[in-house]
Amino acid sequence: MVGLGPKPPPSRKGTGHLSDIPKDLKKEIENLERLFTVDQTKLKAITKHFVSELDKGLSVEGGSIPMNPTWVMSFPDGYETGTFLALDMGGTNLRVCEITLTDQKSEFDIIQSKYRMPEELKVGQSEELWDYIADCVNQFIETHHDDVSKLDKLPLGFTFSYPATQNYIDEGILQRWTKGFDIAGVEGKNVVPMFEAALAAKGTPIKLAALINDTTGTLIASAYTDTKMKIGCIFGTGCNAAYMENAGSIPKLAHMNLPADMPMAINCEWGAFDNEHKVLPRTPYDIIIDNDSPRPGQQAFEKMIAGLYLGELLRLIMVDLHDNHETHIFANQDISKLRRAYTLDSSFLSAIEEDPWENLQETSELFNEKLGINPTHPELCLVRRAAELIGTRAARLSACGVAAISIKKDYKTCHVGADGSVFNKYPHFKERGAQALKEILDWPDKKDPKEEDPIEILAAEDGSGVGAALIAALTLKRVQAGNLSGILHPENFV
Ligand code: GLC
């Protein structure tokens, strides 16, 4: 930025001087706008279908959305105490934390280490994955405890953020890999013994207390400090939500004879919404993403929203406009780097959307550095508009999920705790989501812009760390109180 002086305030939200853009490029922009815009009527239609699919997921027959009971059966009261380990196996990183829930209401201390999840492991062998995870946990314990051999077994909350069937809180039968993972021999199996075997092989002193999903952790951690929190969401590498249901409204658990008003957190796994492709406005680019993914036909909703796919959508658009259209963007340039699938992540779109310069200087530099391409100004304008359309569509579609749970549960006002890289870092994601919620739920205009929306999506507490520790604490509390459903195997009930 040398020589350009201080950054001017962003003078506009949209693309620069569309009037400078040649007609053929303008036509392409209009085409993208047609493909990617989700208007109010469509948002409402998607939400309506979403509500019925949430119900279907809870029914005995089931549907596309798994609606997994989690055996998390209460909110914390703020007086949970103890020291717990939490392991977060997300889509991108691995994190190990030690959390102490202190005597002070809703207070905690945390120490943590982050480890990269190597790309090869995501598509490698099962044993290598568990061995790597156990190594990270081991390393963490050895770094933070002097004499590991004298250590009592620490209770661990394992945040395993993939769809898993849980008959008990300490099991997780992987339904299918999501977020680009593809490791043979794990789907259909309980991952807990695999993880425990890897730990035992290293002599790591740990007792798994609970396996949780990141959304459930987010819900519980957020409710710990804000009692208005009713939904926990992740908008990150993947996209999903959890909320508290009553056992009596979960027909597929009827055989357990739980009290009808007993709370039960449900991990929706809403990424699988509309796998039948009935309502989502999929573009040809979405179809390519799906076909080329390790699990075609799965996670239809997630593939239009989550961070893992936003960069790929933009890349596919650009390659298409280079190869197949009359416009031939980036003509006579070497686009070999751009041809590599998943070469762009959502931070590339964030940077484009955040470029404050009228001439899209930063975007131009980014293309240069990352892709070896020198776009013309009109091409930069097109790319900027494409990024806006992709980011806006993601935010608006995700609002359909939040609206659907709110309608289903008749929540007129509440807080929704959200976490994940897209929610925390993608520019305008929150505002765009809030605008879509307003359109779906027909809220009147605010009198004062500072006023809260009836349903407000807020940055969550750390679900996979503190949430996991809280769930481990709540589980131990339940054991002490003798409420063992979802903890003990029925044959062990006396
Ligand atoms: C994917 C996973 C889900 C997780 C979400 C966010 O959708 O299937 O379990 O909650 O990503 O990480």
Structural class: alpha/beta
Task: State the CATH architecture of the largest domain.
Answer: 3-Layer(aba) Sandwich
Give me the Rg, rounded: 24 Å
The biggest beta sheet is recorded as: 6 strands, mixed
CATH class of the largest domain: Alpha Beta
In total, the number of strands is: 13
Give the overall silhouette.
globular
For the largest sheet, list the strands in their spatial order. 1-11-10-9-12-13
Please work out how many helical segments DSSP would assign: 15
Task: Return the CATH topology of the largest domain.
Answer: Hexokinase, domain 1
- Percent of sequence in beta strands: 15-25%
Bound molecules: alpha-D-glucopyranose
First-last Cα distance: 71 Å
Element string (H = helix, E = strand): HHEEEEHHEEEHEHEEEHHHHHHEHHEH
Low-confidence stretches: 1-15
Mean pLDDT over the residues = 93
> Structurally, how many domains make up the residues?
2
Residues in helix, % = 40-55%
